[in-house]
Q: What sequence folds into this?
């Protein structure tokens, strides 16, 4: 077997199961598949798999330039992976072409088509690197749900959605940030972007539990939540993997963590152990919580389409089916309603989603406020860096599409503070 065929065949199978069976890269069977690989192959696998999904729309436009007939799904995925490696990752052409041909043979397809097409693409690869995606090239479900975006916002999204994300980290306190052993671009007194992202988990300060990874967008709401004190009892309804809860725990406040997903609870517990945080953890369906116990602040990072995290989760566009919006919207509404019953008067629901689509964000909040006259939208006021961060605040909502901040990439996100007034 040609060197490299085995790992590339694994990549092909993962991409196919995501595309055809609507799995995710974090799906348990795929994780097991990845963990079986040699240690040195895992980084290669993630690099090719993630970038094949991020750049698959670019690759499809390239394929359409060279092939006019309808391709089988397997052929399409072989070509997407190969084009990503040749055109965008600058891997050795002959190795990629040879491995792709061998995979085609394994699948009893037509190796001549793959071989000839990839050789033609290789000759034009410098020009093909410049290929651009238009809004009409995006999945139809997204075009419809995001049609409210301005032309400028659409342009921003198209420039950003396929890029690799940056790593943003949050410290327990200011002192730990000051002692950090590597270079950092500060975004607040306790957070910043890593300048050197290589092997960050091997850094002594990470092992000691001085900080955790959390995207800037999801960090910003709780950092700017001013109605906070030690007498409050917090509940994080969908806590795993824990970033927002860690912000509360680092202040030594009382918070109970909950997550419905058992696998995510395991990740949450591992993170808590490293950070040396201890608190109560529930593994329950939030909708089924008893109404007896009340809380002062309930954090709902609601299940959603996750389009704001498209760079981290490129399978959102790669799958052949879009999100089940009816199910998601119903769940978001039910979670908000449940939180309203569990909240003390003068308490807050912090409603967040890693989506920027109106139907999951502004519309949901406005619908909730219309049905619950005993709630009001509280002010979203920035603590610091108002000049640079104010673009994320609109009508007391924090909302951003996948964006660039100080030349670093941040996720699309939404947050609103909802106060119970009677």
A:
């Amino acid at each position: 077997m040609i060197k490299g065929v085995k790992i590339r065949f694994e990549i092909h199978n993962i991409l196919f199961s995501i595309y055809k069976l609507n799995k995710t890269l974090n799906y348990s069977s795929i994780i097991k598949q990845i963990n079986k690989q040699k240690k040195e192959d895992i980084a290669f696998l993630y690099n090719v798999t993630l970038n094949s999904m991020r750049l698959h729309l670019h690759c499809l436009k390239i394929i359409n330039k060279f092939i006019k007939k309808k391709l089988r799904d397997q052929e399409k995925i072989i070509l997407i992976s190969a084009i990503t490696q040749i055109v965008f990752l600058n891997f050795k052409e002959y190795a990629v072409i040879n491995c792709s041909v061998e995979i085609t043979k394994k699948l009893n397809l037509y190796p001549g088509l793959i071989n000839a097409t990839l050789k033609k693409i290789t000759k034009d690869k410098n020009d093909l690197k410049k290929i651009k995606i238009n809004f009409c090239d995006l999945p139809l479900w997204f075009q419809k749900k995001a049609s409210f975006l301005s032309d400028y916002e659409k342009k921003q999204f198209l420039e950003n959605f396929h890029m690799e994300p940056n790593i943003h980290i949050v410290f327990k306190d200011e002192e730990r940030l000051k002692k950090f052993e590597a270079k950092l671009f500060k975004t607040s007194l306790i957070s910043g972007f890593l300048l050197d992202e290589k092997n960050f988990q091997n850094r002594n300060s990470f092992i000691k539990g001085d900080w955790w990874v959390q995207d800037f967008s999801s960090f910003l709401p709780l950092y700017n939540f001013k109605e906070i004190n030690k007498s409050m009892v917090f509940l994080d309804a969908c806590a795993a993997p824990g970033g927002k809860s860690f912000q509360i725990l680092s202040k030594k406040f009382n918070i109970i963590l909950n997550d419905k997903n058992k696998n995510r609870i395991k990740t949450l517990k591992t993170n808590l152990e490293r950070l040396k945080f201890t608190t109560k953890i529930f593994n329950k369906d939030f909708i089924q919580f008893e109404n007896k116990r009340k809380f002062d602040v309930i954090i709902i990072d609601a299940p959603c389409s996750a389009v704001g995290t498209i760079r981290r989760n490129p399978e959102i566009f790669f799958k052949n089916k879009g999100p089940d919006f009816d199910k998601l919207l119903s769940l978001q509404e039910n979670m908000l309603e449940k939180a309203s019953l569990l909240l003390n008067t003068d308490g807050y629901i912090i409603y967040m989603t890693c989506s920027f689509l109106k139907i999951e964000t502004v519309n949901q909040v406005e619908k909730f406020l219309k049905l619950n006259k005993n709630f009001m939208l509280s002010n979203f006021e920035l603590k610091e860096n108002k000049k640079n961060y104010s673009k994320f605040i609109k009508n007391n909502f924090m909302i951003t599409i996948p964006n660039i901040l100080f030349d670093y990439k941040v996720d699309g996100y939404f947050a609103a503070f909802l106060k119970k007034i009677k």
